[in-house]
Inverse folding.
């Protein structure tokens, strides 16, 4: 119950603030109406089709109508706002508008920009002067605005620095709620930032080949001896697609391939999805059916030590018990219960032809592959060759197998 | 006219009906029910049907009760948890496993466009797959969406009495999964008696390697951190392993990760590892008064 109490207090605090602050609100509303009319006229003349300014009280939204959307323009607009007049009226609305349009300017991962926005807030004005002000969220709208800004930083994975703490202290004082948010972020974000056992560059490269390399490398961490090769289909004489293939295979997989029965087929399966941060790539596997006899034989070796119903007495007429098959083969990590994985690949076009080229290129190191039948087994429709998916001439075929989720 | 508008605004402040708020609304005084307003009203079966269902369930419940009593009388609990042995808590290759899980997405309440299903994969394991999307209806209330979630049903004893899992003897969570490179969230619900504790969930991340190979992830329970309604709490504590009520996985469309996902789960197991001595991975130092947990 103790955890609730400050919430109740804050609720009443917010109520008091709202009732108290209603008088000036009306004046502001009138201003917005006039501004909106102005803006409508402006928009008619400029023929701008942004339309996003409708939802915001700050009717003249410089971010929506900016011609050049770069970081410099963004910072200049913040600077213009700060120098326009001494009172910096509507700065909360300005910061909200600025936050909303960050992605358009491509600055949502930039700490400097967030700092510039916090810098818009007046220093010293919002610092509570007594304990009641401190407890009842002094200037709640301004505090909430900066909390929302910090939350946007958190969502975009931008970690604040100590300068930002100094700035927030200057604006809201030691007891400010944005400070609490900041301290929470500075406690947890470094803890989670590098937690992944498979670290990735941030941001991930835009090039499909680079992403494919990252993906195959990550999948091949299961076997440290794996080798990742970037192959070109142009090395082959009769390949239809001219593209790249990122192939991952380890010596152990080559060995398994050599030992594979020539009567049993191999399957090229896919396309499966693989995510590298927010990029998705398709990959294919070369797989054989599981060696059921071998796996069953392994199970036999694992004796149930808890089973006391059959204890052999070693003294009477029996040879002492020996561990079964002590010199037998060990199970490879590639021998999964549902199949033996021979190789993994990602190709530039994800077509049947490029996969065929992959097998031919693999044959160079593993000549046995030429004698084993290889079958396609696709989960979804896969085009035969690159021409079929090249329909819109503006989109290159190489980009076809990757879905940047931003679109 | 303006006076009227102002009056209605003031009135609406006290009536929690549909209105426009100028500040963040905090209705955290008490919770009416566990779903916090997301409870879907389902049509209640007729009285006759209830009696028939009750009588039918009686047989199974009696059987469960008999087992409980026998176990109590036998009084032979496991005392030694041998290191290196994995006790499987949720086996996805067991029969009727899918009935024990509930799948939820943001589309359930019309707040998003994600979809997800839990079914058996070709290899016989559980496959939690679907598509998460951060698109949502722009109603001005929902800020961000895009999640899919699976959760076990509340663990219970005979006659529909609620109980909890007791995992105090273990210190590791072992998962055999095959993912797609996404990171998933492991949720251990420790639902308490009071409304404050209804939403207590301990989380940790499950990073998946991706690829065709199975992956075994071992996560110490000491790494799990407390959060409530998606917010990490300031006052942390080690997870009370005797109070686990649900277990689940979540996946989100955060940071532009909209699109298909797939997590194949063979089992979720528990292990006691004597070499892991850590009690809680996060600092428990004293924090300033009136700042923390406000």
């Amino acid at each position: 119950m103790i955890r609730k109490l400050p919430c109740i207090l804050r609720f009443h605090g917010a109520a008091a603030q709202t009732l108290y602050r209603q008088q000036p609100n009306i004046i502001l509303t009138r201003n917005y109406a006039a501004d909106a009319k102005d803006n409508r006229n402006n928009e008619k003349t400029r023929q701008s089709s942004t339309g996003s300014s409708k939802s915001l009280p700050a009717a003249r939204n410089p971010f929506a109508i900016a011609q050049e959307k770069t970081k410099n323009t963004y910072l200049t607009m913040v600077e213009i706002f700060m120098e326009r007049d001494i009172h910096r009226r509507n700065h909360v609305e300005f910061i909200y508008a600025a936050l909303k349009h960050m992605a358009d300017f491509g600055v949502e991962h930039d700490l400097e920009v967030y700092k510039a926005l916090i810098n818009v807030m007046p220093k010293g004005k919002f610092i509570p002067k007594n304990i009641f002000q401190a407890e009842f969220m002094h200037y709640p709208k301004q505090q909430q605005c900066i909390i929302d800004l910090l939350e946007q930083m958190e969502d975009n994975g931008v970690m604040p620095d100590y300068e930002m703490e100094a700035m927030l202290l200057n604006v809201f004082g030691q007891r400010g709620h944005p400070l609490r948010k900041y301290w929470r972020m500075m406690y947890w974000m470094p803890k989670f930032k590098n937690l992944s056992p498979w670290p990735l560059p941030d941001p991930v490269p835009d090039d499909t080949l680079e992403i494919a390399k990252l993906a195959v490398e990550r999948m091949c961490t299961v076997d440290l001896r794996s080798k990742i090769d970037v192959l070109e289909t142009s090395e082959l004489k009769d390949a239809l697609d001219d593209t790249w293939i990122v192939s991952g295979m380890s010596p152990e997989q080559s060995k398994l391939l050599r030992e594979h029965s020539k009567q049993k087929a191999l399957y090229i399966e896919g396309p499966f999805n693989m995510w590298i941060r927010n990029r998705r790539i398709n990959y294919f596997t070369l797989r054989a059916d599981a060696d059921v006899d071998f796996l069953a034989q392994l199970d036999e070796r694992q004796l149930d030590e808890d089973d006391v119903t059959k204890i052999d007495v070693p003294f009477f007429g029996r040879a002492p018990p020996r561990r079964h098959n002590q010199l037998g083969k060990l199970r490879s990590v590639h021998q999964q219960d549902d199949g033996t994985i021979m190789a993994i690949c990602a190709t530039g076009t994800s077509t049947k032809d490029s996969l065929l080229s992959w097998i031919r290129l693999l044959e160079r190191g593993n000549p046995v592959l030429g004698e084993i039948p290889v079958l396609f087994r696709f989960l979804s429709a896969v085009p035969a060759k690159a021409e079929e998916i090249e329909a819109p001439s503006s989109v290159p075929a190489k980009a076809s197998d990757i879905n940047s989720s931003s679109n | 006219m303006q006076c009227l508008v102002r009056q209605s605004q003031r009135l609406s402040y006290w009536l929690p009906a549909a209105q426009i708020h100028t500040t963040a609304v905090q209705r955290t005084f008490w919770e009416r029910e566990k779903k916090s307003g997301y409870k879907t009203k389902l049509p209640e079966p007729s009285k006759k049907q209830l009696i028939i269902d009750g009588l039918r369930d009686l047989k199974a419940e009696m059987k469960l009760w008999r087992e409980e009593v026998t176990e109590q009388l036998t009084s032979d609990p496991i005392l030694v948890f041998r290191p290196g042995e994995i006790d499987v808590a949720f086996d996805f290759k067991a029969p009727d496993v899918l009935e024990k899980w509930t799948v939820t997405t943001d589309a359930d309440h019309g707040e998003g466009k994600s979809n997800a299903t839990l079914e058996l994969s070709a290899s016989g394991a559980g496959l939690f797959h679907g598509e998460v999307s951060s698109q949502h209806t722009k109603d001005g209330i929902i800020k961000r969406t895009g999640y899919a979630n699976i959760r076990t049903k509340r663990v219970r004893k005979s006659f529909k009495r609620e109980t909890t899992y007791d995992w105090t003897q273990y210190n590791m969570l072992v998962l055999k999964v095959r993912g797609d490179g996404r990171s998933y969230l492991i949720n251990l619900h420790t639902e308490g008696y009071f409304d404050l504790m209804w939403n207590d969930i301990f989380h940790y991340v499950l990073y998946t390697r991706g690829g065709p190979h199975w992956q075994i992830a071992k996560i110490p329970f000491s790494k799990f951190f407390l959060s409530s309604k998606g917010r990490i709490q300031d006052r942390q504590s080690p997870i009370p392993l005797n109070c686990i009520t649900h277990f689940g996985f979540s996946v989100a469309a955060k940071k532009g990760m909209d699109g298909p996902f797939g997590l194949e789960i063979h089992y979720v197991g528990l292990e006691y590892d004597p070499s892991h001595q850590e009690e809680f991975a996060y600092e428990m130092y004293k924090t300033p008064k009136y700042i923390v947990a406000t």
